[in-house]
Amino acid sequence: MITGVMMRPFSELSEGKDWFISWLKKHNFTDIVDTDTISIYYHWDLEATLDGKRYVFELKNRTFPSYQFGDAAVNYDKYKYLLDCPHKAVFVTFWTDCFIMIDVKNYPPDEDITRQCPHQTRFTDHQIIRKKMVRWKIQNMKLIEYD
Question: How many domains is the chain built from?
Fold first, then answer.
């Protein structure tokens, strides 16, 4: 657990895109594209370039601290899109106390799981359904403090 950290610097209603775009710029990423400008049905949220390499980022905003469940989880279908894309793929989870970036092609998930989740979060269908997901246990992973 991280202690003495700044709390998440954006609203829980925000995906954190604007903040993360700013973070990417501070860390020398260029050619940053919010894929919502291409289509709201795109398979990841952002694209950016660093040192001549193209990256894709899938962002998830959680309303609880990192230690509550001790994992980072994403829908299995999203994971497969990231795994199969031609670029470096990073899964980013924002918790209230910190965030994490996981290189999905070089760090496989710990397990497949099924969770009860809203069918959609960005659209009007919030029906609770069972979703197949993958999860990474974060106990030995580097958590990043908000700056």
Answer: 1
